[in-house]
Design brief:
348 residues, TIM Barrel, two-stranded antiparallel sheet, globular
């Protein structure tokens, strides 16, 4: 397993990490995960044997049961693992049971520590941006968490670039702990993070942890042109990916992925994940799994490389029209100031 720096921090994390949203041990309505403690323990065993010791969860996954099951699965080996969890999403019905206020974050962190059975969280993310709470209130609270030892590193998820940059600036102004990582929705099917968030990461030394590298199963290879989708598949439900990529685009992308996978004797998911491994600022890629077989397959996504020609084909197949002002930047400023350090220069 390859280990990388988590942004500008001194923490080294495996390039592949494990998402535990499927942990929960319940099939009740509203429960995302149904993997119970025994199943979770087996998956954690496999991950640790492979050198994957970074586990991602959140207080809102299955109403906290994901954290409970993960805590049980790592019991007795807390010193062997890195835990990242999140807050800000609704955790109850009350008016203060969401957001990034001092009140909610304090309650959320204590709840997460209790469910995980630990005295600290290695990486604490804000799950979403809250522009109603003053940024100084949020950041001073997070800094206190770090100073208390209950949190070791800070991160964000699903932020806009302007709000993240504002937060970094305020933290520097007051000498508070800074965000060192951003967790992003990023894949061959959804490359919008390249417009501003990844360049910001390069400029400010903020690492990237990728969530949904297979675009919520749309790059699993199960969806192909002319192949009906099973009605039980997670890919049937509307997903964030559909905001970025229409089905016809995905069909074309899958065809190129399949060609490359055949050339390499790999699977489509392995190729899609491997493409992300070499993207700038990427520290770790979260694998979501419901079965041991899925985990074993995805662990084989590293330890080899795409050729330059294969990478170029995937880049071209996943290219999407740029919105304003990015197309204008490329058209008029690329020669002087290459603002796009992620895609091939393109003149319009």
């Amino acid at each position: 397993m390859e280990y990388r720096q988590l942004g500008g921090s001194g923490l080294r994390v495996p390039v592949l990490s494990l998402g535990t949203g499927t942990f929960g041990g319940s099939s009740e309505p509203g429960s995302w995960g149904d993997t119970d403690e025994a199943g979770a323990t087996r998956i954690v065993d496999i991950a640790l044997d492979a050198g994957l010791n970074f586990f991602d969860t959140a207080d809102m996954y299955s109403a906290g049961r994901s954290e409970q099951v993960l805590g049980a699965a790592i019991r007795g080996r807390r010193d062997q693992v890195i835990i990242g969890t999140k807050a800000t999403q609704p955790s109850g019905a009350g008016p203060n049971d969401l957001g990034s206020s001092r009140h909610h974050l304090t309650e959320a962190l204590e709840g997460s520590l209790r469910r995980l059975g630990t005295d600290h969280v290695d990486v604490y993310y804000l799950h979403n941006m809250d522009t109603l709470t003053p940024v100084e209130e949020t950041l001073s609270t997070l800094d206190e968490f770090v100073r208390s030892g209950k949190v070791r590193y800070l991160g964000v998820s699903n932020f806009s670039a302007w709000w993240l940059m504002k937060s970094l600036s305020v933290s520097e102004r007051y000498g508070w702990s800074k965000y060192v990582v951003q967790q992003l929705f990023y894949s061959l099917a959804s490359r919008e993070a390249e417009w501003e968030l990844l360049p910001l990461g390069l400029e400010q030394n903020v690492g990237t942890v990728v969530w949904s590298p297979l675009a919520q199963s749309r790059l699993s290879g199960k969806i192909r042109r002319g192949r009906p989708v099973e009605t039980t598949s997670r890919t049937v439900a509307p997903s964030e990916t559909e905001q970025s990529a229409d089905q016809e685009f995905v069909y074309g992308l899958i065809e190129v992925l399949a060609e490359v996978a055949q050339e390499l004797d790999r699977t489509i998911p392995q190729v899609a994940i491997n493409w992300l491994v070499e993207r700038p600022t990427v520290s770790s890629i979260i694998l979501g799994t419901r079965t041991e077989e899925q985990l074993w397959e995805n662990l084989e996504a590293i330890g080899w490389s795409l050729s330059a020609e294969q990478r170029a084909r995937l880049d071209a197949a996943s290219e999407r029209p740029l919105p304003y002002p990015y197309w204008h930047h490329q058209q008029n400023l690329a020669a002087r100031n290459p603002v796009d350090r992620f895609r091939r220069p393109r003149m319009r």
